[in-house]
Every structure is written in structure tokens, then in C-alpha cells.
């Protein structure tokens, strides 16, 4: 039975994602995303389940930076989890008396409208996780009046639900990924996604266009592009890409070899089945057979067979 680290404690959205991705896995709750990834790196766990992207907020910075800079890990699976938030407090708490709200920053951001409308005088305080906030609020004498977390976390820690469905949008989805230490890749399924980090060799006009061209001319459709600061000063960025296809696909292999040739560094983060099972539309001339035919043609003309 594999052991997987995740952002704990019990009752987080990460745990919900883990249960979908690996229902039989042993669960190792970690204090934060970095600790969960380190547990996988050190071999204390066989892998980790961490949030990568949210449909409202975009990429989760800690995860993106860990995957870019830390000891290499590979993404092997993903899940799209609809997230629904509740306002949870100790039994007996009146909503009008809530002055300090504790939750994970992603939850606080996604419930900004509710807090501004219903609790305009309350302050929000960042917690390591939604369930961690619920656990803390449940303690007698806690400095926090309420937590924002999943309903199930409230039930688990003995809190009452003062309001439900408090997210600014009802259709918010978080994409969680399962990562492992480097290992053989999942087989191509025809509906795959590949993730990559690219560091530019130097800053020059058109550098971003050059990267994008490698994808465009091979008919590779991007599903996410995000710049993150390198930390080397204002204006210095590296790039995260997610795109359709598997590294075993000729068009994907050619695109990322192209990036490897022209960029300072390319870190491959994995090719894995898409949770939504959507297959890419293959543009004319970019199927595996087209690349093989073109390679054959090139080989023939190189030997004078015109
Ligand atoms: O804190 C949690 O429960 C998490 O899993 C992180 C998170 C927080 C808010 C939305 C999605 C994921």
C-alpha cells in the first residue's frame, strides 16, 4: 500500500483529492506543501498530493516554486476537485460576533466577497490549511472566532456551520497533482498533459515569443503558462508551462527538445493522464506519422535520393 504525504491535518481539500487519486493509500498528513514534498523526496512517503492550480486564482506559488527549484519530482496524476467553503465556529458563536477569521490564504481569497459583505469588520488571518484552521478554532480559548473550511472539517473538529457555499463563485475547481520521486512515466493515454519549467538564457526582445514558437509550430496547445520571479531582481522571471500531449508524442518531444536547445534550462515535470480525459485536436502535419514521414524524407534527401 503506497504512503502519500499531503497538506494536513484531516479534513483538508488536499485529503479529499488524495482519497480520489489513491483511495487505498496510507495517508501522511504534513504541516504544509513543502513538508509534504520533502517527505516524498526523502522517501518517508512514496509520493505527495499537492494543489497546483485553482480556476479562480491560477497557480499555487509554493507548489510551482518547489517543483521548479527543489530536488526533482515527477507529476504522475492529477485530479480536478470542486471546492466548497463553509464558515465554521464554536457552538454558540453568533455570526455578528465574528471578528477574527482563520483559513488557508486560497480559501480567504476565494471567499473575499462573502467576508466583505457579511463580516465587514472582521480581519482574516492566514492558516497553514483550512482544516488546520478549523482544528485551531475548535480549541477553547482560541484567538480566532471562525474558520473557513470544508463542511466535513467542521464536523470532524466539532464546529457548527454558520454559512455554507460562501465562495465568490460556486464553480471553483482546484487541480491537485500526485508527485513521486523520478520513476518511469505513465503510459500515453491519448488524453495527457505535460508540465515543464523553462529558464531563459538571457533577457532579449522576443524571448517569450521564441519559447511559444516552439509549441506553436508543432501544434502543441498550452493549458497554462505562468511566470514566476527567479529572485534575482525585478524583471527576472522563469516560466511554467502545462500543455496537451505526452512527451512520447512526436510533436511534444520536438517542442521540448527545441526549448532545450534555445533556453538556459528546461525542467521536465512529467506527462500524465488528464483528469478531464479531453483529447487534443491534432493539427494537420503534427501527428506522429507526419513527423516519422518527414524524418524519412530528410534521411532520403541526405543520401541523394531526390
Ligand atoms: O487547506 C486546504 O484544505 C487545502 O487543501 C489547500 C486549499 C485551500 C483552498 C482551496 C483549495 C486548496
TrEMBL record:
Keywords of the record: Amino-acid biosynthesis, Aromatic amino acid biosynthesis, Lyase, Phenylalanine biosynthesis
Pathway: Amino-acid biosynthesis; L-phenylalanine biosynthesis; phenylpyruvate from prephenate: step 1/1
Recorded catalytic activity of this chain's protein: prephenate + H(+) = 3-phenylpyruvate + CO2 + H2O
Class of this enzyme: lyase
InterPro entries membership: ACT-like_dom_sf (IPR045865), ACT_dom (IPR002912), Chor_mutase/pphenate_deHydtase (IPR008242), Preph_deHydtase (IPR001086), Preph_deHydtase_CS (IPR018528)
EC number assigned by the record: 4.2.1.51
ACT domain ranges (all copies): 196-273
Residue stretches spanning the membrane: none
Biological processes, Gene Ontology terms: L-phenylalanine biosynthetic process
One cellular component term from this protein's GO annotations in UniProt: cytoplasm
Domain (Prephenate dehydratase): residue spans on this chain: 3-181
Site keyed Essential for prephenate dehydratase activity: positions: 174
Keyword match Membrane: no
Gene3D superfamilies reported in the protein's UniProt record: 3.30.70.260, Periplasmic binding protein-like II
Protein name: Prephenate dehydratase
Organism: Planobispora siamensis
Taxonomic lineage of the native organism: Bacteria, Bacillati, Actinomycetota, Actinomycetes, Streptosporangiales
Gene that encodes the chain: pheA
Amino acid at each position: 500500500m503506497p504512503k502519500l504525504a499531503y497538506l494536513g491535518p484531516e479534513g483538508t481539500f488536499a485529503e479529499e483529492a488524495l482519497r480520489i487519486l489513491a483511495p487505498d493509500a496510507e495517508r501522511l498528513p504534513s504541516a504544509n506543501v513543502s513538508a509534504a514534498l520533502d517527505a516524498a523526496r526523502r522517501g518517508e512517503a512514496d509520493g505527495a498530493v499537492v494543489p497546483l492550480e485553482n480556476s479562480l486564482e491560477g497557480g499555487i506559488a509554493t507548489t510551482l516554486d518547489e517543483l521548479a527549484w527543489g530536488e526533482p519530482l515527477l507529476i504522475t496524476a492529477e485530479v480536478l476537485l470542486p471546492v466548497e467553503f463553509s464558515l465554521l465556529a464554536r457552538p454558540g458563536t453568533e455570526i455578528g460576533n465574528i471578528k477574527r477569521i482563520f483559513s488557508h490564504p486560497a480559501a480567504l481569497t476565494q471567499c473575499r466577497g462573502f467576508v466583505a459583505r457579511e463580516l465587514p469588520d472582521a480581519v482574516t488571518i492566514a492558516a497553514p490549511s483550512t482544516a488546520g484552521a478549523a482544528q485551531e478554532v475548535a480549541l477553547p480559548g482560541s484567538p480566532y472566532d471562525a474558520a473557513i473550511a470544508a463542511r466535513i472539517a467542521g464536523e470532524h473538529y466539532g464546529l457548527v456551520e454558520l454559512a455554507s457555499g460562501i465562495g465568490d463563485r460556486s464553480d471553483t475547481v482546484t487541480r491537485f497533482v500526485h508527485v513521486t520521486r523520478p520513476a518511469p512515466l505513465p503510459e500515453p493515454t491519448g488524453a495527457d498533459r505535460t508540465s515543464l519549467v523553462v529558464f531563459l538564457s538571457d533577457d532579449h526582445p522576443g524571448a517569450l515569443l521564441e519559447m511559444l514558437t516552439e509549441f506553436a509550430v508543432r501544434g502543441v496547445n498550452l493549458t497554462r503558462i505562468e511566470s514566476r520571479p527567479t529572485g534575482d531582481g525585478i524583471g527576472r522571471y522563469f516560466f511554467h508551462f502545462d500543455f496537451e500531449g505526452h512527451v512520447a508524442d512526436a510533436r511534444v518531444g520536438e517542442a521540448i527538445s527545441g526549448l532545450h536547445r534555445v533556453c538556459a534550462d528546461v525542467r521536465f515535470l512529467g506527462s500524465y493522464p488528464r483528469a478531464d480525459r479531453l483529447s487534443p485536436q491534432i493539427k494537420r502535419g503534427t501527428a506522429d506519422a507526419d513527423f516519422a514521414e518527414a524524418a524519412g524524407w530528410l534521411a532520403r534527401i541526405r543520401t541523394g535520393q531526390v
